[in-house]
Specification:
By secondary structure, the chain is an all-alpha fold. About 75% of the residues lie in helices and about 0% in strands. The longest helix has 25 residues.
Length: about 140
Amino acid sequence: MQCEDVNRYFHRMDMPKILARIKARIDELETSEAAVSKASTGSTDTIRNWRRRVKKGETPGASTLTLQPVADTLNVPLDWLLGNGPDDLAEYLSDGDDEVRFMRLYRRLGPKGKTAALRQVSALVDQFAQSESEED
């Protein structure tokens, strides 16, 4: 993500929308706000505090740096959590061409999943190169 993208997200964050997406994903995963907060930030109150501040009309204190671990815990792209694209996660992930879909799915993987995906892509690249050399 480029620096200007980070600044755009930080200055235009729609916290009510972000909190709605967090809640929807928590419900989908059948977990709790406290569990996601604890796994993401070490405190059980992070998301609750954001929600309280938003209700009071205060600045919630969230940033892309504090939202990224929440996105990782919820296994969603930060871009989606920040309110970009359709609200439906499946629709968001299926939007766009194959490269876009691949990158969105790749970002959702943990370190082991990313390593496995890169191995698969590398094998495909090798297979493609071999088939091209056989055609010559």
